[in-house]
Design goal:
seven-stranded mixed β-sheet, 12 helices, about 55% helix
């Protein structure tokens, strides 16, 4: 799907979302009754009603967000001071508020509980962070960014490299393009662009910033795991392929982006993030079948201080070792649930 030009996204798609939300609000009783009636004939507890309600809340927040972001643009002198520190902070404050509302709605609507297990020693507030997370299930990136912005113990300003097709979402498009983040092509030619973006974003971090990366490059599926292992064998990395075969729940990490981030920000602490509870909902079909999710999501953080990160020649092996430890932790949590 080709991304529309900038002018189309700003002048057509964004206003259209606001108009559609106003129309949906006016017809709220009607479509709620229809959704409730149809839910009677679909397996699951109020499945259609839950999805319809969450989408309504999400797009309502989209519309409110677009209005707020437009107001910020006007107050900043029609974009003149939009990159100043005060207006950057205003965007992060808005992002925190918006994600807190979106994630709160998701937790209530789909009955998701979260058990967050923090490290005994939190990362230093005097250093930036490199956050390396597992990628599995719907919304784990939203969950992670929300945790960084709204967590009780670790609050950071997140930075991330995203696929350009996510700019179809008007609020994400406007907000993410105004603060230190980068969009890269989703298909073909994005490899070096992504590395360059990672290098720039991490090299310019300050204390209080956190760069988020998903080393696996995509959600786990058995077929992706098999292809990734085969590729390691094909390129002559049998030892890494053997390590990857020991991991049952994770894809082997793609080291290029992570190594570039560490090289560009040697003063940053490294945080590994694992989570369990969303891995069985990796496709749209899985999500639909799983609603209401009734998911208990366990999240754990491990911190490696900057001075404990190994030298460049040992970092790829170290990354695989950490990923193996993360896989073992996932296996242990799943065993506890059986």
């Amino acid at each position: 799907m080709k991304l529309p030009p900038y002018i189309v996204r700003r002048a057509l798609i964004a206003p259209l979302v606001v108009v559609l939300v106003v129309l949906a609000l006016g017809a709220l009783p009607l479509w709620l009754l229809i959704a409730a009636f149809l839910s009677r004939y679909v397996p699951g507890r109020w499945r259609i009603l839950r999805v319809a309600w969450f989408l309504f809340v999400y797009f309502t927040l989209e519309a409110l967000g677009l209005i707020v972001l437009f107001a910020i643009w006007i107050v900043s002198g029609f974009g003149w001071k939009i990159r100043s520190s005060s207006f950057q902070e205003a965007h992060y404050q808005f992002m925190s508020w918006w994600l807190r509302r979106v994630m709160g709605s998701a937790r209530r609507t789909f009955r998701i509980s979260t058990d967050i297990r923090l490290p005994e020693e939190p990362p230093s507030p005097d250093r930036p962070l490199l956050v390396l997370s597992r990628h599995a299930g719907p919304g784990d990136s939203f969950m992670l960014i929300d945790g960084l912005l709204n967590g009780d113990h670790v609050r950071r300003r997140p930075r991330i490299v995203l696929k350009d097709l996510l700019q179809w979402d008007p609020c994400v498009d406007v907000l993410i393009n105004r603060i230190p983040n980068r969009f890269v092509p989703a298909h073909g030619g994005g490899g070096q662009d992504a590395i360059d973006a990672i290098t720039h974003l991490t090299a310019t971090m300050h204390p209080g910033d956190a760069f988020v990366i998903f080393p696996e490059g995509g959600n786990f599926t058995p077929s992706r795991r098999s292809r990734a292992i085969e590729k390691l064998d094909e390129i002559g990395r049998p030892k890494l392929a053997d390590r990857a075969r020991t991991m049952e729940h994770l894809l082997p990490p793609k080291p290029a982006g992570t190594l570039a981030a560490i090289e560009a920000a040697p003063e940053a602490d490294v945080v590994f993030v694992g989570h369990v509870g969303l891995e069985e909902l990796s496709s749209v079909r899985d999500v639909w079948r799983g609603i209401p999710m009734d998911a208990a999501v366990v999240v754990r953080y491990w911190v490696t201080p900057a001075h404990e990160v190994p030298p460049p020649e040992d970092r790829e092996r170290w990354l695989y070792e950490r990923w193996q430890q993360l896989d073992e932790w996932i296996d242990g949590v799943l065993d506890e649930r059986e």
